[in-house]
Amino acid sequence: MNNQSSANGNVEQQQTAPLIGSQDGSSRVSSESLLAGNGRLEIVHENEIYRLSRTKNGKLILTK
């Protein structure tokens, strides 16, 4: 777990998902470890927040 300061100055704990090796050398992470039971994850990319969520049918949706 890593600590990171949020935009409002609060320190938030951030979990690091375990990497799984890939044949082509790219990083691979299981969706189960990313979504960690609650089915949702917020991703900050270039100061924008994206939400990765799992549907009832097991599909993944990334929204801004």
General description of the model:
With 64 residues, this protein is mainly β. It has a single domain (2-63), classed as Complement Module, domain 1. The protein is built from 1 helix and 7 strands. The protein has one helix at residues 31-35, and strands at residues 2-5, 11-14, 19-20, 28-29, 40-45, 48-54, 60-63. The strands form 3 sheets. A 3-stranded antiparallel β-sheet has the order 5-6-7, with no helix packed on it. The protein has a two-stranded antiparallel sheet with strand order 1-2. A two-stranded antiparallel sheet has the order 3-4. Strand 5 and strand 6 form a beta hairpin. The longest helix is centred in the middle third of the chain and has 5 residues, at 31-35. It is globular, with a radius of gyration of 13 Å. Mean pLDDT is 78; it is low at 1-5. This is Hemin uptake protein HemP. It comes from Nitrincola lacisaponensis. InterPro entries: Hemin_uptake_protein_HemP. Pfam families: hemP. Residues 1-37 are annotated as: Disordered.
Main features:
64 residues; mainly beta; Complement Module, domain 1; 8% helix; globular; disordered N terminus
N-to-C span: 25 Å
- Rg over alpha carbons: 13 Å
Number of helices: 1
CATH topology: Complement Module, domain 1
Low-confidence stretches: 1-5
Q: How much is the average pLDDT?
A: 78
Our estimate of the beta-strand percent is over 45%
Assembly classification: single chain
Shape-level CATH architecture: Ribbon
Question: Could you give a short account of the major beta sheet?
Answer: 3 strands, antiparallel
Strand order of the largest sheet: 5-6-7
CATH class placement: Mainly Beta
Number of discrete domains: 1
Protein name: Hemin uptake protein HemP
Pfam families: hemP (PF10636)
